[in-house]
Amino acid sequence: MLFPRLSQRQVSALVAVGSIALATGLLVSEPARAAGGLAAAARIGGRYFGSATDNPELSDPGYVAALTGGEFSATTPANAMKWQTIEPTENRFDYTDGDAVVSLAKAHGMQVRGHTLVWHNQLAAWVQDLPGSRVRAAMENHITNVVSHYKGRLYAWDVVNQPFNEDGSWQTNTFYAAMGQDYVADALRTARAADPGAKLYLNDYNIEGVGAKADAMYALVKSLRAAGVPIDGVGFETHLALQYGFPHRMRQNLQRFADLGIDVAITELDVRMPAPETAAKDAGQITYYTDVVKACLAVTGCVGITLWDYTDQYSWVPAAFPGEGSALPWDDKLTKKTALYSAIISALAVPVTRRAMP
Predict the structure, then answer these.
(1) Whether residue 35 has pLDDT greater than 60
(2) Cβ pair 126, 87 in contact under 8 A
(3) What value does the mean pLDDT take over residues 255-263?
(4) Which of the residue ranges 10-24, 230-244, 341-355 has the most confident prediction, judged by mean pLDDT?
(5) Of 29, 94, 284, 344, which one is least surrounded by beta carbons within 10 A?
(6) Is 222 helix (H, G, I), strand (E, B) or coil?
(7) For 357, how many CA atoms within 13 A lie in the half-sphere containing its CB?
(8) Which of 298, 296, 332 is nearest to 314 (CA)?
(9) What is the DSSP string of 120-141?
């Protein structure tokens, strides 16, 4: 189609407020994109942009308004679907917290990533006390019940969370001790049987850049694919810290996973800094966030980005890493950090590759 002729004044005005981008056959300025928020900016490139949430936060009206007001097209329950919450006693399931998150998300047109079915942390004590001969049946029963309960309502599941140590060796958790590395394939097959329509992921941290742990995950996924085990994606948690440097060759690493024929996703993004917050640290944080977004957008198989909650007010960082914080694009008063937020919008504005929305 022909584009309307713009006057020099119009061109100058557009350049002054942001770059001119081509989207769906129309010229769209950055402020026009920003008006729709993060989800709208990500949607142009066929990605989702989400935020995790947790049930205690849902009693805060201001928090809920921002979570569901259009900034985010997806959410992940941070704790509501973990084993100790859903099945604290053997074969007695409590879906109260998980249902609350799913209902809220569905009421506002947000997709949900389930998190997580099999993990060595936040695992009910009774599972850890089982004899090895009973672990497989307990795991399969848990997966079948939970995935069946949410069948058709969740976009994806983190089926197995954090199976590897930092050096690429296997976590010797309850499941590995009982079944060896075959527990991963068994978990994936069980989840597929319970909901054939849900995307099935493995999820881990410190696999964003090339290294021993990422190599171990890559080798596992490659072997699972070769064996015909149902796996649809890998989640890269992406809990970053300014003092440790940016992940080595992140884009190339995401691409090699995508080249296996799976989706990749940034599932738990935050970028923490040591206190006190300074202008220099803020600038570094902006660079980290924008580089993560650019890495995802450069890989066609990267389907979306999820913040590990969107506000410092409810961030897990200060409790987990004393003396660190300020990790998210909203501050502890639920106010957008203008420079960081605008930088993320700008990074989303002109995707390198486009894909169909997941």
Answers:
(1) no
(2) no
(3) 98
(4) 230-244
(5) 94
(6) helix
(7) 11
(8) 332
(9) SSS--HHHHTS-HHHHHHHHHH
- Domain parsing of the chain, residue ranges: 1-35, 37-349
pLDDT for 163 beyond 90: yes
Burial of 291 per CB tally in 10 Å (0-12, 13-18, 19+): middle
**Cβ(286)–Cβ(340) below 8 Å:** yes
Query: Which H helix or E strand runs over 347?
Result: helix 338-349
H or E segment to which residue 267 belongs: strand 263-274
CATH fit for domain 37-349, picks 3.30.1380.10, 3.20.20.80, 3.40.1190.20, 3.90.550.10:
3.20.20.80
Query: Do the bridges between strand 263-274 and strand 324-325 make them parallel or antiparallel, or are there none, so unpaired?
Result: antiparallel
Phi/psi at 23 (5° precision)? -145, 125
Q: What is the pLDDT of residue 354?
A: 72
DSSP 176: H
pLDDT tens string 291-338: 999 999 999 999 999 999 999 999 999 999 999 999 999 999 999 999
Structure tokens at 90: 């053997």
- The rounded distance, in Å, linking the Cα atoms of 189 and 200 is 10
Q: Residue 22: is its pLDDT beyond 90?
A: no
Residues in contact with 245: Cβ distance below 8 Å, sequence separation at least 6, in sequence order? none
- What are the backbone dihedrals phi and psi of residue 43, each rounded to the nearest 5 degrees, phi first? -65, -30
Q: What whole-number distance in Å separates Cα of residue 210 and Cα of residue 253?
A: 6
- CA dist 204 and 168 (Å) reads 11
